[in-house]
Amino acid sequence: MQKVTRFFAGLLLIALWSGCASAPDPTCVAVAPEKTKTLVKGTDPGVQALQRRLYERDKQIADLKTQLETLKHIDMDVRINKKANLSSSQDPSR
Prior knowledge:
The protein is mainly α and 94 residues long. It has helices at residues 2-18, 35-38, 45-89.
């Protein structure tokens, strides 16, 4: 249970950092950076290693943003279905 809480807390932090914490915004799209733009040939191997780590981190953040958006949609569907089930169970015509 604690791991799940930490996972969702981490997703929330990523969403807040990205500015996509509100309702789905069509202008907020998670895109992995292009590797060709970040890696420069002929530079120091230490710099290249850091660039690779940065690229991988950005790619992971993009993946987590996509997962977060999917979870938001699932949550929204569950809430809508829950409301629909509550209103149909309270329907006096049944």
